[in-house]
Amino acid sequence: MDAAYSLARYLARDAAAAEDIAQEALLKAYRNIDALRGGEVKPWLLTIVRNAYFDWRRRDNGRTVTGPAAEVAMAETPAEDTSAEDAVIRQGDVAALRRAIETVPEPFREALVLRDLEELSYREIAEITAVPMGTVMSRLARARRMLGERLGVLEPIS
Amino acid sequence: MSACPDKELLLHALVDDELDAGNALALEAHVATCAGCAAELAAIREVKVQLKAAPLAYTAPQSLFDRLDAAIAEAEAPPPRRRAVRAETWVMSGAAGALAASLALLAFIPTGVSLQSELVDAQARSLEAQHLVDVETSDRHTVKPWFNGKIDFAPPVVDLASQGYPLVGGRLERIDGRRVAALVFHRQAHVINLFIWPGDAPAEASMQQKDGYNLIRWGQGGLVFWAVSDCDAGALTGFQKDFAAATR
Known about the structure:
Distance between the termini of chain A: 41 Å
Oligomer: heterodimer
Strand order of the largest sheet of chain B: 1-2-3-4-7-6-5
Order of helices and strands of chain B: HHHHHHHEHEEEEEEH
Strand content of chain A: under 5%
Radius of gyration of chain A: 16 Å
């Protein structure tokens, strides 16, 4: 349940939309529970969440009120956290880390969330996102590089 | 200085434990002699460490559970049971239908953590982290309103000082992905955490042990109660009887 909501939240980058998406996906999962047939629950459920997200994005296209991630992030920034824009993120600063993840573009962000937050295997991620394993690996590498740069851990590639 | 271009993806796979032993050994041998790849490997590890160090995954809000309940109840009237999201209730009572089974599966298997473990963890956490209570008072008239607006139900609050279980205070806990009330009582040198949330459970108390703690569960007035403590079973049973009697 949490995994479904969390993925929806990181994909949509909006709390209300994430709830809509997760609700739709969980209901769909519940209705189709027979299709699971002893497989792994989590990859199956997250595939449904991902599809629900794309449905939502298609529906919402053109009338979306959600700004770019940066805007959302700014709106959610607590008042005391208005230090320099490019300040290195403090270790363990959950809100800042979440914002940093949200600034990673979508296919890379998705791979990162599925691997480093949901701890799925490359193979599972490949199945969920319907791309070859090699693509999963390169997306993950790019996502970590972008995030590493934001964290001040990795130097930008020149 | 950067990693060898043909090795970069493999370095990630190494960190992720996705390489077979042969490739892992070969790559490690290479890293031992290549400063660029070694630095890259360390950086990837550091990113992963930082991601692991913080609870970055979101937990589902209570409103989502409520909306699912409502949507399913609407689709399948009459609903088998109102709050069917608890696997434990389902397992123990053996009385829920396909809805409970399905949702319990969804709610539980991904986490792999039993409710009892969560409760014991919450108990242990409350003792370790100096976070026993959010509102510290033995006055039940202070504790009860404190929960207003923080949770969507009103837990019964009583002080059992005269029975040997003085009320210490209350706090919020997150158990099984939802906000629950925790009341804290003392029993001599021991602490009793009483976790409360809406749901169905048999009125008759059932006792179990986990990791050296005693746990008692019972249901009353549409709420589920779990008392957790390291005090002896007799004392906890006495607490359960006194609390249930005082709130009946």
